């Protein structure tokens, strides 16, 4: 096992284990299942429209927002679980997310979508809490997809860049613009009003 594979395996197992532990006690009722289903559908639809950049990476029109919104206005644990379901469905419904290896599903798919649920881990009562949560979610998504690029797409590395340099640059080129836009939108949304309207948890 190469060092890159070892690092990726440790991160993936740790992330999935910690997330599963933090989501313990989540109770699903009719309302939460409906919200989760709607969020999953919205994420998949938005994720189907991609704008490709010169680096080959792509950004989508707000596909991160539904899961982050669910996390910040209802229950971040439900958003993480919904993210897992979305990650699995994306394999079949979004061509760009077709895995090249079965392990990629764990390294990238289950991490990239469920990580967006961490946007609500600090609550939504203060703007700084929203900002910290959103940035954490973006960072976790970046790490999962970047490690996937190192392990599963190193053959696509540009000449002289190496697997790490290629994957980091490739994913930063799309995460920075999409992450910036998403962060600004989440900070501008009336989260308290939305939370009260859907009966979300107070934070």
Brief synopsis:
With 203 residues, the protein is mainly α. It contains eight helices and two strands; from the N terminus they run ααββαααααα. The protein has a two-stranded antiparallel sheet.
What does this structure look like?
The protein is mainly α and 203 residues long. 67% of the residues lie in helices and 2% in strands. The protein has a two-stranded antiparallel ribbon with strand order 1-2. Strand 1 (51-52) and strand 2 (58-59) form a beta hairpin. Helix 1 crosses helix 5 (104-114) and helix 5 runs antiparallel to helix 6 (127-152). The longest helix is centred in the last third of the chain and has 27 residues, at 162-188. The radius of gyration is 17 Å and the shape is globular. It starts with a helix and ends in a 5-residue tail after the last helix.
- DSSP summary: helix tally: 8
Q: How big is the Rg?
A: 17 Å
What do the pLDDT scores average to? 94
Work out the number of β strands: 2
The coarse overall form would be globular
User: What share of the residues does DSSP label as strand, in percent?
Assistant: under 5%
**Structural class, judged by helices and strands?**
mainly alpha
In whole angstroms, how far apart are the ends? Answer: 44 Å
Q: Give the low-pLDDT segments.
A: none
- Main sheet properties: 2 strands, antiparallel
Query: Which range best describes the helical content: under 10%, 10-25%, 25-40%, 40-55%, 55-70% or over 70%?
Result: 55-70%
Strand arrangement within the widest β-sheet reads 1-2
Order of helices and strands: HHEEHHHHHH
């Amino acid at each position: 096992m190469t060092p890159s594979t070892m690092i990726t395996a440790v991160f993936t197992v740790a992330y999935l284990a910690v997330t599963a532990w933090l989501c313990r006690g989540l109770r699903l009722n009719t309302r939460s299942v409906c919200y989760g289903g709607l969020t999953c559908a919205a994420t998949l639809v938005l994720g189907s429209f991609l704008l490709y950049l010169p680096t080959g990476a792509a950004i989508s029109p707000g596909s991160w927002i539904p899961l982050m919104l669910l996390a910040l206005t209802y229950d971040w644990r439900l958003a993480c679980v919904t993210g897992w379901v979305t990650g699995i469905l994306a394999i079949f419904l979004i061509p760009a997310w077709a895995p090249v290896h079965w392990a990629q599903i764990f390294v990238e798919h289950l991490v990239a979508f469920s990580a967006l649920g961490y946007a609500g881990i600090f609550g939504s009562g203060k703007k700084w809490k929203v900002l910290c949560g959103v940035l954490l979610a973006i960072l976790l998504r970046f790490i999962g997809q970047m490690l996937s690029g190192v392990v599963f797409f190193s053959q696509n590395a540009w000449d002289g860049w190496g697997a790490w340099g290629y994957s980091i640059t490739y994913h930063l080129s799309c995460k920075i613009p999409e992450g910036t836009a998403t962060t600004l939108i989440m900070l501008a949304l009336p989260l308290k009003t939305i939370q009260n309207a859907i009966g979300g948890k107070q934070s």
